[in-house]
Write a structure and sequence with these properties.
Elements (H helix, E strand, L loop, with lengths): L5 E4 L1 E4 L6 H4 L19 H4 L22 E4 L11 H9 L3 E4 L4 H9 L3 E4 L2 H8 L5 E4 L4 E4 L2 E4 L4 H9 L3 H6 L2 H14 L9
Parallel strand pairs: 2-3, 3-4, 4-5
Antiparallel strand pairs: 1-6, 6-7, 7-8
Amino acid sequence: MEPFVTLTGTAAPLLRANIDTDLIIPKQFLKTLVRSGLGRNLFHEIRYDANGQERPDFILNQPRYRKAVILLAGPNFGCGSSREHAPWALKDFGIRAIIAPSFADIFFTNCFANGLLPLTLPIDAIEALAAVDGPLTVDLPAQQVRGGGHSFAFELEPARKAVLLEGLDEIKRTEANLADIAAYEARRRHEAPWLDIHVS
């Protein structure tokens, strides 16, 4: 997983409340277990019309925001089902950070597992960032979002911060504890050898 340290780029404002995971990536696109290719279907129902043509008024279809790397959102972003395809689709499109007043818990956790930074700021701060005419910078070590003369601090649990800074997915985090796992297994075999008896 690619480490997340600082991110500077375009921020697309989509300040709707209660954007659920079915709106982020509709159910008909969940058949794949491959993480690539989902970006083209991100926000499909509001990004395309009934004929599959782009809606020119949708934010990510506008030339300025086609290469957005930050998404500014409303409260309760990522509510709905727990589908991990939602952060996959956002990341495949190019989004690396989502700034919202609040997130659904499962979506919030899934973001960290996939190298995305979901961070919370008050709605007035997000509205100020949405009005910035230029790039924003998300500085994870300093825990700040800067742009247009604004600077806003955000809170983040140290363990989740470390996961992103080091680019550790769940497998890498497990591998970092292999010595402890091996020691536990050796101790368990000594203390409870009957657990290793196999009945044929």
